[in-house]
Amino acid sequence: MNQPVLFEERPTANGMRIGVATLNAPQTLNGLSLDMARMLDERLRAWAVDPGLAVVVLQGAGDKAFCAGGDLHGLYRSMREAPPGNPWSNRYARDFFETEYRLDYRIHTYPKPVLCWGNGFVMGGGIGLMMGASHRVVSETSRLAMPEISIGLFPDVGGSWLLNRMPGSTGVFLALTGAQLNAADAFFTGLADFHVRQADWPGLLERLLELPWAGSGVGIDTDEEAPAFAPRSMNDGLLRQALVALEPSQGLEPGPLKQHSFQINNLCSGTDLLDIHENIASLAQHDDPWLSKAARTMLAGSPGTARLAFTLLLRMRQRSLEDVFRAEYVAALQATAHGDFAEGIRALLIDKDRKPRWNPATIEAADKQWVLKFFDEPWPEGQAHPLADLGAA
User: Fold this and answer.
1) Partners of residue 355 on adjacent β-strands
2) Which GO terms describe its cellular component (predicted)?
């Protein structure tokens, strides 16, 4: 049986090593399973304290996707088997979301450079892995999205933090429509740092083996006068130089999100979801196919997801990344017992009839009172939040 994540440690010219983690499930577009998340987290913990490991590389097997989501089939089975209405009884969902969110947070706070190859599809759980990396790379084939509106969840994995930091009201638009971004719009929204052609990626990995990486026993770490942050700073710089050297000379044309950002900001500003929903819906017959598809996706999607995603964006606007992960953990567990998550997966992946029966069925019914249950902590009274230690020294 193939390992779901492949790990390599490639020796460099000066004796340091590059750690390469490859998501190895190309048949499912490298969707992140619980086993994959556990394996990644365990290896990242080990590499973080390995003095001979200079840089971590995250990539996906095959050329179609880095990671196109999470383990929806496993979550669906767990929701079918768990007692109805009791999110804390779903042990698989508890473990999955805790492990995934801890992994994502680890990448955000990693002590060494993390290079993420966002080639092909990067969606949902893939966004969670990529957005915390220090060096995020897209190619001409990159398509990024948080399409949870179509499966009845919400943009999680820190999405409530990420979307709030996008220009203007574009994050609200993306949360409600699940619209796909190309490489240019990945830069516009702050999801990408570098652009490398797909054909140049193998050469980049070879080039990394030739660079004079800093680390324990190598380079400046042998100088007691060198500041403690110097190896990280040097290695960040070396990685940046290698990536910039491969960037295509011809710049990217503005993507559709940036092209329509003025209109989107006007349509999605304010705190009234019903108004914003109506404004986006007015684009369903727009001449621009990207805008019309975004509007039609929202209209076909879960009204409950729209309310939950929008409420999270409002509540998390000034909160820390740690607080966002904690709030999303509660909401994700509640979504396994309430709302449309199971129904969305059924319609898309199980029965594949693409005819979800959303409940509530309208945006008006998914009101401010309805959404409150997604913020109730589901564990026994007096128990600490499973992610309470995020951010602790």
Assistant:
1) none
2) cytosol
Stretch 29-35: mean pLDDT: 97
pTM, two decimal places: 0.95
Going by pLDDT thresholds of 50, 70 and 90, the confidence category of residue 221 is very low
Any idea what DSSP says for residue 367?
-
Q: Write the single-letter amino acid at 256.
A: P
Q: Is 143 left (phi over 0), alpha (psi -120 to 50) or beta?
A: beta
Distance CA 154, CA 149 (A): 6
Closest CA to 212 of 201, 204, 220, 200: 220
Q: Classify the phi-psi angles of 192: left when phi > 0, otherwise alpha if psi is within -120 to 50, otherwise beta.
A: beta
Q: Are 6 and 21 in contact (CB under 8 A)?
A: yes
Cα–Cα distance measured from residue 281 to residue 297, given in angstroms and rounded to the nearest whole number: 10
171, with CB counted inside 10 A (0-12, 13-18, 19+), is buried
Q: What is the pLDDT of residues 56-84, one digit of tens each?
A: 999 999 999 999 999 999 999 999 999 98
User: Per residue in 138-152, pLDDT tens?
Assistant: 999 999 999 999 999
Instruction: Tell me the one-letter amino acid at 71.
Output: D
pLDDT grade for 215, boundaries at 50, 70 and 90: confident
Look at the block and give the residue holding tokens 């973080």.
Answer: 48
Helix, strand, coil percentages (3-state) for the chain, rounded to 5, are 50, 10, 40
Judge whether residue 211 has pLDDT over 70: yes
The structure tokens 């950002």 sit at 261
Q: Which domains does the chain have, with CATH numbers?
A: 5-199+250-375 (3.90.226.10)
Distance, CA of 354 to CA of 334 (rounded, Å): 23
Tokens read off for 103? 């992994």
Query: How far apart, in whole angstroms, are the C-alpha atoms of residue 307 and residue 146?
Result: 15
Proportion of the chain above pLDDT 90, given as a percent: 93
Q: Which secondary-structure segment (H or E) carries 56?
A: strand 53-60
